[in-house]
Amino acid sequence: MIDPNGKFLAGYFRMKGDIYSHGAVIIWGLETGEVFDTFDVKMNRLHTVAFSPVSAASPQGIGKTLVVGGFGL
């Protein structure tokens, strides 16, 4: 989850989309520009993307300001 302040809290995040059926999501650290991980995702029929960002859930990712960017979503 990402709290209202944009801090990464847990290894599960849901993103809504309504145009494309698949795409990619990138999670990276705002302070360092470090890319934590990239995910290929697919929409379910409720148009919710669900993925488990394992790398971002690692200790170096917790407490950082993470930016979620998507394309094709």
Describe the structure in your own words:
With 73 residues, the chain is mainly beta. The protein has one domain (13-71). 0% of the residues lie in helices and 41% in strands. It has a three-stranded antiparallel sheet, with no helix packed on it. It has a two-stranded antiparallel sheet with strand order 1-4. Strand 2 and strand 3 form a beta hairpin. The chain starts with 12 loop residues before the first strand and ends with a strand. Mean pLDDT is 44; it is low at 1-25, 39-67 and 69-73.
In short:
The chain is 0% helix and 41% strand. It has no helices and five strands.
Strand order of the largest sheet: 3-2-5
Gyration radius over CA: 12 Å
What percentage of residues falls in helices of 4 or more residues? under 10%
Kindly report the average pLDDT value: 44
Count of folded domains: 1
Content of β-strand: 35-45%
> Helix-strand pattern, N to C?
EEEEE
InterPro entries: Quino_amine_DH_bsu (IPR011044)
Record the SSE blueprint:
Layout: E1 13-16, E2 22-29, E3 35-42, E4 48-51, E5 66-71
Antiparallel strand pairs: 1-4, 2-3, 2-5
InterPro entries: Quino_amine_DH_bsu (IPR011044)
Q: Characteristics of this structure?
A:
73 residues; two-stranded antiparallel sheet; Quino_amine_DH_bsu; mainly beta; three-stranded antiparallel sheet; disordered C terminus; disordered N terminus; single chain
